[in-house]
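Sanity check

After download, print the first record. It should look like this:
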Amino acid sequence: MSDEFQTVAKADDLAPGEMMQVRVGRQRIGLYNVDGEFFATDDTCSHEEASLTEGFLFDDIVECPLHGAAFCVRTGEVEAFPATVDIDTYAVRVVDGEVQVNPTPK
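Expected structure tokens:
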């Protein structure tokens, strides 16, 4: 894994229970605040081309707005069908109030 973290947002931009899409180069990454802890995953559902951050966040589960597939934002694991393929997750850190993501999947 690369040590090349990139700043994608300010920590204050994303309240607990909220999510947003960020871009790192050409990658669309979903950024989530779960009870003050930040997580990052691919923003594209593995079932079909849909942005997960346009869906719903319930605790640490993101639900795709298209067909209801769900994934754990902590691990990327599928939590509900129709998806059967996990999504990538990314290392996240907060430095001086800035949220930084490593664009290399864990």
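If your output differs, re-run the checksum step. Summary of this record's structure: The chain has one domain: 6-105.
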